[in-house]
Design goal:
By secondary structure, the chain is of the alpha/beta class. The chain has two domains: about 5-140 and about 320-360, Nucleotidyltransferase, domain 5; about 150-315, ATPase, nucleotide binding domain (Nucleotidyltransferase, domain 5, 2-Layer Sandwich), CATH 3.30.420.40. It contains 13 helices and 13 strands. It has helices at about 45-55, 60-85, 110-120, 130-135, 145-150, 195-205, 215, 220-235, 255, 260-280, 295-305, 325-335, 345, and strands at about 5-10, 15-25, 35-45, 90-95, 95-100, 105-110, 125, 155-160, 165-170, 185-190, 285-290, 310, 360. The strands form three sheets. It has a six-stranded mixed β-sheet with strand order 3-2-1-4-7-13, with helices on both faces. Helix 2 (about 60-85) runs parallel beside helix 3. The longest helix has 23 residues, at about 60-85.
């Protein structure tokens, strides 16, 4: 079968680093089999605070925005070179940095032409735009890649991503290659790392709560737990793609700031876990990925509230730190094969979903 080596690139809404993953993709279309080869993470440096300002709708000139897009693209090209170590690849798929998402409006900042020119490799990017243009929410876009990488022929699985926002993909057992694609369910749930990292930056004075250690030393505050749970549950009930209007600026009011910061962190982990557990469907196993999987306090809370066993995607040959980057690579392969990457039951796009991606050929 045809084998392609594809690099996927991802920076999430937490805007903490640039992840790249190299996969080997055998076959084409929905019978694709993808194997994770390796990944790398590159810091965004002084790009991170500027991208956060743009994502928070802070005023910027056109020159500043285009300068950010150029610097971001050069960072992507450098990170891909570092990952490949001089080896060839057939395609680079770039998510781009989400700086605004409120369907039908969405913007994933990326200068794909600059990356293609720098690497002399075909580049596909702007993967949400076709779905949005056709009337969908543009997200989540990873469920089909979850199916390719993590579906099992023997059990139901939920892939739980603990990123800036939490989201899930419910995977039925994988069917035989010549049968129709089973009905996959997926959706955004609620704030996760964006809220936890905001608490870390503004109350704990650190970029993030490493391993959830500060939260582990705190106590649950019942009144704050009730408040957080209600707000997060409202996001989970919305049944839409979460984005710019759902982000945490303004969540930390004076009353919350007056509490012990470790108690705020601990209570937030508990509230996020409760809302996630209530939202995901019954399943045989939960596969956890994303930066939040390293937060032991959040993990412990999830274990307490979810009946099914929790395991990291690392246990299934897909490091959680690189799951989304690897899935961008899978989505790039599907785009190249002219397979729609979004699902009508997930994004709300009318059937048939459109073929996605903007292409730059070197």
């Amino acid at each position: 079968m045809r084998t392609r080596r594809i690099v996927g690139c991802m920076t999430g809404t937490s805007i903490d680093a640039l992840d790249c993953a190299l996969i080997a993709a055998e076959g084409e279309g929905l019978v694709l089999r993808a194997t994770f080869e390796r990944g790398s993470t590159a810091p965004l440096g002084d790009l991170a605070p500027r991208l956060r300002e743009l994502a928070r709708q802070q005023p910027m000139t056109a020159a500043e925005i285009t300068g950010l897009a150029r610097k971001y693209a050069l960072s992507v090209a450098d990170a891909v070179r570092e990952l490949l170590r001089g080896e060839p690849c057939d395609l680079v798929a770039i998510h781009g940095q989400t700086v605004y998402h409120a369907p039908p409006l969405s913007w994933q900042l990326c200068n794909g032409a600059l990356v293609a020119h720098a690497l002399r490799v075909p580049v596909v990017f702007d993967l949400r735009a076709a779905d949005l243009s056709a009337g969908g929410q543009g997200a989540p876009i990873t469920p089909l890649a979850d199916y390719v990488l993590l579906a099992s022929p023997h059990e139901r699985r939920v892939v739980l991503n603990l990123g800036g926002f939490s989201n899930f993909t419910a995977l039925p057992p994988r069917l035989e290659p010549d049968t129709d694609l089973p009905r996959i369910q997926a959706g955004d749930i609620c704030l996760c790392n964006q809220l936890l990292d905001t608490i870390a930056r503004e109350l704990l004075g650190v970029p993030f709560d490493r391993d959830g250690a500060a939260a582990a030393s705190g106590q649950v505050v019942d009144a704050l737990l009730e408040h957080w749970t209600a707000r997060l549950a409202a996001q989970a009930r919305a049944g839409r793609s979460l984005g710019t209007s759902d982000e945490p600026p303004g969540w930390l009011n004076a009353a919350t700031r007056a509490l012990n910061p470790t108690d705020v962190a601990r209570t937030t982990c508990e509230a996020v876990a409760r809302v996630i557990a209530h939202r995901i469907p019954p399943t045989d196993r939960v596969l956890v990925a994303g930066g939040g999987a390293a937060n032991r306090t959040l993990w412990t809370s999830l274990q307490r509230h979810i009946a099914a066993p929790l395991q990291r995607t690392d246990d299934f040959d897909l490091p959680g730190a690189y799951r989304e980057a690897a899935e961008m690579a899978v989505l790039g392969a599907l785009c190249q094969d002219r397979v729609p990457i979004t699902l009508p039951q997930v994004t709300g796009v009318p059937s048939p979903a459109p073929v996605s991606g903007v292409w730059v050929l070197p």
